[in-house]
Fold these 3 entries.
Entry 1:
Amino acid sequence: MKTLYRRVAGIDVHRVKHVATVLIEQADGSTEAHTREFGGFKRDLRWLVAWLQRYAVELVVMESTSIYWKSLYAHLERAGIEAWVVNAHHIKHVPGRKTDLGDARWLAELGRFGLVRGSFIPPQDLRELRLIARYRHKLSGTLAGEKNRLHKVLDDAGIKLGAVVSDISGVSAQAMLAGLLGGEEPNALIELAKGRLKAKREELQLALDGELSARHLFLLQSLQGHIRQLQAQLDELDGYLIAAMAPYRWAWELLQTIPGIDAIAAALILVEIGEDMHRFGSADRLASWAALCPGNHESAGKRQSGKTRKGNSLVRYLLCEAANAARRTKTVFASKYQGLVIRRGHKKAIVALAHKLIRTIYVILSRREPYRDSGTDYQAAAVSKNAPRWIRALKQFGYWPTQTPVTA
């Protein structure tokens, strides 16, 4: 096999220990190996980088072990040394080489011949914004959990407000909840209903008629305070992320032209995938990286399960949320959803819409053009494709053209 790099280093990354092996190809084709252990502190990482520079290393290959690779990668990036962070899943099943020294040398060997691919690593600015975006995602989940706990405590007290209002976080519901915590009577709280809730006065009176004990009140006040605190934190993080989009404003604004994607969703997606689509090469590769395309598993000429594999969980979550919003718009996404949901069900149809969204994102960021709806009627296309089969079945069982079933 032809070598692609003559001076390669493989690093087995741990929390406080890094084992590095440098392979240098000689003129006669033989290799000279140098191995050394380093600590995981900043001083040790500087020594490791200096050691690699001494051997004029062209490429460094390391596994994506937890988050321990991130600090080392930042040092290598600042030093101008090309580094690949490879997927541990691609090499973990290799027999033997289970020592730290063996792992480091094996990574270097794979890198020499180009037998591994580096993972997508965004620039430093986006890597740091990822920390904020993922913390926001965690807080959002915590907020949803606290709201569910609020529902549970209200139901425990016999108050079924969540069964009547569509959103317990809405203005009317929050005003009623505040009145309950203040000791007001249900009849007085009904007057706080706004908009369409005014037509549900009788249901609201029944829903608000419960038995709130002192412990219920204490817990509800605590939950309300925590929910307000979490919402304030989320608003602060959203403001910071949107302000941080200034260097990527062109891409951020283009993403918002896609149905279902608002300002904060556009910022979160951009933080995860970046603005440069050339790193992925094609829309297919971007969809595969996000694990939003069908799985490819074939054996003995038979197609096995097409279940999607694991990928970037935040990108999947964001695009599925955007797909849920896009299916309600008067665009091609709604047509595609209607064409799929009957045959595939809601969940698979949403994943298919998310797959279409990620491909659309690739196209508009590559061309730097806003989204334009194609106007394709996917529901009509599905009917056109399946109508002959449906008609044959209707004729077979006597429903066509008389529309009266055949009696046995």
Entry 2:
Amino acid sequence: MGHIPFFRRFQFKVTLAFIAAMFFVISLSNLFIYKFTLDSQFESLRSRLMVIARTASLLIDADTLKAVPLNHEGIRSPAYQVIVEKLRKIKDVNPQLQYIYTLTKTDKEGVWQFVVDPDPTTKEGKAKMPTSYPGDEYDAGRFPEMLKAFDGPSADRKLEIDEWGVTLSGYAPILDRRGKAVAILGVDMTADDVYRLQQQVRTRLFLILGLSIILSIILGMMTSRKIGHPVEELTEGTRRISNGELAYRVPVQREDEIGELANSFNAMAQSLSESRKRILGFFYDMVTTLVRILELRDHYTRGHSEAVSEYAAQIARRLGIDEEKIEKFKKMTLLHDIGKLGIKDSILHKKGSLTKEEWDLVKQHPIMGEEILKPVMSEEEMLAVVKQHHERYDGKGYPQQLSGDEINVFAAIVSVADAYHAMTSDRSYRQALSHEEAVEELKKNRGTQFHPKIVHIFLEILKEESKTRSNI
């Protein structure tokens, strides 16, 4: 999985999709909650302003209010001072109020006039403040809810703008003894107060949104890992199976569809492994038969492959190679000269020296052997036994001129075992060497033709073999 960029991985896409889905749901939920909360908060403010206005209006005596002269001199009248004092007390009890005032109608449609507003007397001398003295006209037609106030308590449905700024206002009628509205009482809350409340709501909602996003990321990563990791395991299993590792099994333990898929995958791998073993067994039997036929063509090499195979297995054990691989190795060693099937008998059995052309052809038999086995043998290290068993440690061998550790260890083992058995066997072009002579040749050529460590191990095996024979 390392070659796939992170942003293209299935796990990343699942995480991203999960986070996006949760973010959308949470954002949409928060949007509705935000709107609902703001609407509720706004309605709560309207209701509070109407209650304050209604309660305050009950404290105002209509007859005293009517006694206020509707001109600038009216602020000096006793009636005005009485009403001002009551309005200030109401404001003191409700510190969230910015303005409190009384208005009454004029003969003009939508035009009202101030009766009592305590602010001008407290803010006299301050520059650029709008006046609201008794009798000052006010365009009430701009505010639908204010116009309804003579009929009952009401409040603005949105923030309104007038000469005093942006406010939210509540209104209530001031009734005389007969229950007739003679004026209205208004209370204003500035936009700053409303905005502050709205900001508090936003802050809480954004905090919830932030925590929700973090939670969605954590849950997204956990969920995608539960889905993505098994998929990665299955991908890795597919890669290994395609590379010939039929013994590999996907380690996915789940009781869901992915678990079923993993179990099916492992069952498929088991079936392929068993089928491959049967095919390989049949192939080995067939090719081994061909090797025996090849050796029967030349009585000098009869039994050569079996002997080399036994020696090679003993060397492999001394190197600590596991038995399963040694069994495969023994079978491949039996086939190490299979490529000679493509060489004419006249060349293989020639008693004299080979010509350059004939020798070049003989040197092709490792490649021919690999080509014969490759269709049913995918393991490179086993095919190397056939292709590389004539390579030399010093790089002067054939067919690839490999050297040192470039040569597969199994091929290096066969090279030593093959050379020893060949030297101690009669050939059409020479007599067999003695055991001692062959051992000397191995010693002389270790580090040049042969891998020194393998020669050392093989010489120990031969020494032990000689002792066993002498004891018998």
Entry 3:
Amino acid sequence: MPKRRANHEGTIYKRQDGRWVASVTLPGGKRKSFYGQTRQEVGQKLTVGLKARLDGVPLPSDQLKVGRYLQEWLQSVAPSIRPTTWRRYEQLLRIHVLPALGGLPLTRLEPRHIQHLYADLLAHGMPGNTVRLLHTVFRRAMGQAAKWSMVPRNVVQLVSPPRSARHEMQPLSAAQTRALLDVAQGERLSALYVLAIHTGMRLGELLGLQWRDIDLTAGRLHVQHTLLRTRGIWRLAEPKTARSRRRIALAPGAIEALRHHRAQQATERLHLGAAWEDNDMVFANAVGRLLQANHILNRCFRPLLAKAGLPQIRFHDLRHTAATLLLHQGVHPKVVSEMLGHSSIGMTLDVYSHVIPDMQDTAVKAMDALLRG
């Protein structure tokens, strides 16, 4: 015979119709019952109920659906994340989770439901990286449900997302980089490409740069903003992470390019007079307003690559070019990590692991030369 449960531990029994029931006594003597198809199912619900009673929070209810909970969760996290991030979260959950699982009671959500959802999305052509992002958002939402004692555990953690497929990097060689900069000379935004290659800054960070962020005398710049598109409007925002907000030393070539660019911009301002909008932007359009990233890519960068006879790489590959060239030159990965604004040196070493073998060869030769005298 199974051991009888003690007082205040709740009871579990099977009804004549085959369903299982778990009951817990609430303060004041009222009892709350949970129903399920298996003893394990109601046992999990009972565990949540007992914890909720102990914590003094409302007991979970089968009436709360997954869709309703996710909407409440989105409202709760809105003040703590960036608007663009919130819209991405909302879009992923609304389009992909709510139609499939939104009507399911929150307490009945199981790993198999989520695994089947991922398999279905992949079968219909969704990229694996997008499914992984959905998994990250869903896991965070259900993690909060577990903290709030609304579910016994975060079932999303028990599901395996698809493997991440990295974008293939296409960094330019040193010769290709020089070719690009040679062709860029004389272009209105030539300093943009010089700075991108010298610093490894992201396009949004470059377009969010203001003159007040740069000290040409000291040879330093401070990344304090990034350009974001919010509801069709381009605006300046804070960098996504604390590490992205960083100081970068400028090489003489970058300082020279910026001095020339500032003089050219002063001429434009003088010519336009009152028509110029002074937003203090380093890289602005013809009247001083914020530049749009898609304009840079389609009207400036891609034609420049074609003119230089280079492959049509992404602008982000200039960031990879900067890191790769620096590492090849023996610059310490910690320094490169700080320049790029990576969260840790481990991330830098992971992303640029293809460069490490060459660095090891250089280290071996240096040690051999040292010991041989």
